[in-house]
Model the fold of this input.
Amino acid sequence: MHCLKMTAVEFINITKKFGSFFANRDISFSVEKNTVHCILGENGAGKTTLMKILFGMYRQDSGSLKISGEDIRFNSPHDAIAKGIGMVHQHFMLIDDFTVMENIILGNEITKGIRIDFDKTAGILNELISTYSLNLDINKKISEISISAQQKTEILKLLFRNSDILIFDEPTAVLSPAETDEFFKIIGKFKSSGKTIIFITHKLNEVRKISDKVSVLRRGMLVYESSNENRNLDLNILSQAIVGETVVKANTEKADIVFPGNDGRNAISLRNIFLKKDNVSRLKGLNLDLYKGEIHGICGVEGNGQNEIIDIITGLETEFEGEFSNPGCSISLVPDDRLKKGMISEFTIGENIILKKKSSNFISERLLDRISTETAEKYDVRVSDIKSNLSSLSGGNQQKVIFARETELESDVMIFSHPTRGVDINATVFIHSKIIEQRNKGKAVLLISSDLDELFALSDKISVIYNGAIAGTFGSEELSNFRNEELIRKSDESTGSPLSDKIGKLMIGIKTE
Amino acid sequence: MELISSVISLTFLAQVLRLMTPYYLGASGANFSERGGVINIAIEGFMNLAAFSFVLFSILTGNVTAGFICAVLINLLFSLFFSYFTVKLKINQIVTGVGFNLLIAGLTKFLLVYIFNSSSNTERFEGIPDLEIFKGIPFAGTVLSDYMTIFCFALIFISGFVLFRTKYGLRLRSAGENPYAAESLGVNVRLYKLSGILISGFLSSLAGIWLASNQNSYSDGMIAGRGYIALAAMIIGKWKPVNIFFACLIFSAFEALEITLQISGTDFPTQLIQMLPYLITVLVLVGFIGKTKPPAADGVPY
Ligand SMILES: Nc1ncnc2c1ncn2[C@@H]1O[C@H](COP(=O)(O)OP(=O)(O)OP(=O)(O)O)[C@@H](O)[C@H]1O
Ligand SMILES: [Mg+2]
Done:
């Protein structure tokens, strides 16, 4: 039998410019029906831009699109939705004050007469939730639910609209390992129900695991394509295609810092902290010490008290019980939600950075441009125009700006919350070496991350947080043993090591021993 | 003693409910606009404009219905202008609102002199006639003699229903909370913002008509900040129709008290009472009734 593969989407010579800058340049490739197609590339490579064109949010300057072989031209997301395309954005598009249900039905309400038929809607949604095992409460407000639940809300939006082509822009950046596995199961169900999935990520091991085909963009152009039907993608070749040259090696050498005695090493200490917010206990007898010259990693599923720790250390939260001491250390924070906490999106790079600089009372355009240019060079921020607002930077590049500002402050205590979220391979390596550099300079570093590999690679100590308290702490000896084992076991990915198993279990509240 | 008994009486309560009318109309109107993300402080000016055009056209045509219709249409026209500036041109909403209030104040002053040859007030005219059905029944007779007061009671439920139970309301609120998310789902954000402003123009025209009709004339400065108080009531009522209603009752109670005091002829300075609504507003706004949270994208041009 002649087996002809159907194409779901065909990009034909797509070019998109912002000013004189090519965000997409003459991109042509196709996505086959009922496959998982990964799109990879550095920060600022043009992935999100291309997807926004497919979703009708941007209009290409030249080139065309075909959906299921049919020429189309979208004027708005509305047109794209009508053609069965759905998109989960890198930065979620949700209304915090609405319930999950309201967010989902907005724009496609089911009505009975003039009123919205909430009962019927709930029935439909709950059925979808159980079909795809989404495990979501549709009557909760977005502001009350976790990030992974918010993502499920976005997914449910697409299902509710019966989308056939699903675009996910860095969906796993915000998920813990367990949540990522759960997400991949959902993707699996989508595929078996005949849907086409376009998936953007920076995590190569994920790509090998779930993609059927990959396309790599670099500086706006398509530079590499490969099939992965047999799950044997060569990750070395792939990462070279992504960065264009050889992958930068991390400099994670830790200097031995000698302190005169243990006095004065302790930077921050939290003793038996209890915190209630809106009548819910968030911290329940939490103990944590940060020492200078040490990276203390915190791992845990999001929402188990990580943000509350940050709020207490940075002084945002004062209504807690227990003992908090800080002997006058200055504090820097790279927050988890950069859009809401870390930056002013309508400011330029320079303006965002100067906000926290103590020395500058007067601001001139020259100074701002100089700061922007210096930062962009030193931290490899890819921008089309140095005067543009942060909102027009790609997600990963925004993160680099925030990271640059905070590390340049030279504070005594550095808090990094998901520092490499949405950041590409080389930039991740760069950020990692900067974090180590901070440690070697004698800063006390608190590293909060849901990426176990990152925690293992950087931390001198790892604590697992669960339900508002530290469930277990692993010191440098255990970690270095683990790293050595890891070198031996390297190729075999199927079995987890005893330590990461133990940590994984602690994260969900299961104590071994 | 006499004073106290006159305050704790059904007549007083009926008076409070009646005086609530312009506040609630204005506040509900402003609420529709703000739910769509547009701060409309031009409510004050809109009330003023409607009061004036209602009187003008009622006198010119000798027919209050014609006056009513003209006043409503003129307000809708001005609401369109207001939307053009705030939604289409994205000019700062507060600046636009202040501009409208000043412009309308000047315009009515000018026309008052030009048409009525008076710098203070128009001639008297017969306002909207009372509803006669409940006449004679002690309490209901007063409260339910007024079409617009009755409409206000219905409006509590109508706005609650429209905002929270209909497709229109959901989309309007989405435009005020996160227009980008709304647009990504195909909601025409600007259209919904426009509609919110038009509703605010309509309801505030009713408020102005009510005031002029009850006074049986138009006089310069007769709105006396009621539009601003309506906005305060909306904020105190946390943008929720039922709460706004009760907030309006607080303000109308003070107004009723002031009137009772004036009638009773005590030498208690009524200015002090006149001050109270504002004092209350400030107290409430500094967190007396708990945090108030406006729609997330309220006042942000889109
Ligand atoms: N609205 C805009 N105005 C100007 N420039 C833009 C705009 N949107 C994107 N760009 C530029 O286009 C380039 C591509 O951005 P895009 O968001 O597509 O990158 P990306 O591949 O998704 O990166 P990341 O992995 O960091 O999310 C970036 O250099 C960015 O600065
Ligand atoms: Mg992107």
Observations:
- The pocket of magnesium ion (ligand 2) is lined by residues A 47-48, 90, 169, 394-395 (CB under 6 Å).
- The radius of gyration of chain B is 19 Å.
